[in-house]
Amino acid sequence: MINGFACFPSRQRLEHDQDIDIAQAPVPEGGTAAALPDPKSKLAEFNAILQATDLLQLGRFAEAETALARVRETDPKMYLIPFLLAEGYTRAGDIARATSEFRKTLELNPSFDQAMLGLARSLHAQQQDEEARTWLNKALELNPRNFRAWYQIAWIELAQGREAQGIAAFEKVLEIQPNFGLAYRDLGMFRIRQQDYAGAAKLLGRAAELGVEEAPLYNFLGIAYGQTGKPQAALQSYQHAVKLDPALAEARLNLGIALYQAGRRAAAKPEFQEACRLRPQFCSYTPADLR
Fold it and tell me: Rounded mean pLDDT of 38-50?
C-alpha cells in the first residue's frame, strides 16, 4: 500500500494535546494566599480571563487577544496572561511570538510546568532541541511522572535519530499513563516505518480504542492490517479514514487498491479518480483497466 504521510508531524505541525487549565496553575515561588489578588476586587479581570480561555478554545484568537491585553494593562504581573497569549499564538502558528510569551510566563512564575512544556514545544518547532530538552528536564524535576514532558522528550529523541531512547520515552509515558492514546498512535506509526506491521496494528488499534479519531491513524492502521493478512479490516480502516477526511489522498488511493483487490472494480474506480485528482502523482497507480 502507499504510505505518503511522514510517520511524524513536521516541526510546524504542533500537537495541542493538553487543555488550558488555569485552575491548576501553581502559585509563583514565594507567593502566598495573602499575596494573591483578592478575587472580589479582581472579579472583572477573572471574568476576562475565563472569557478569553473560552474564546481560545473556540479559535477566536483576535477577540481573546483583545480581552487579555486589557487585563495585562491593569495587572502586568499576572502570569496567566502571557501563558494564554502563548497558547493562542501557538494555535495561530506564530511560533516566535508564542516562544516570547512562554518566556515571559516563566519569568513571572518559574515553577509553571505547563509553560515549560509549551516553551519546549515552541523551541522544538524552531529546531532548538537542546534548550527544549532543558525545559522538559526542569518540568520533570518538579514532577518526575509528568507524562506529557516524557512525551515531548520522545519526540525530540526520534527527531534526532535516537530511536531507542525515543521508544524508551514513549514506554515511560505509557507506564505513567496507560490510556494516553497519542503515545500508542505515535509508537504505532513508528512501527510502520520499521515494517513491524503486527506491532503497528496492535498499537494503532489501541489508539483507536482510546478515541484517537484521525484519518492518518486509520490509513496507517489499514496498511498494518493489509500487511498482516486482514484485508477486510484494512478495507474498513481505509473507509473510516476517508470518512474522517475525504481529502486525504493516501487513504483514497489505499481504499481504491483494497476495493480493486477485493474484486469490487466499480467501487474502486471513483476512489482512484479522486486520489488522482487530489494528488496527480498518484494517477500512475490506477489500474489500466480502470483508466
Answer: 69
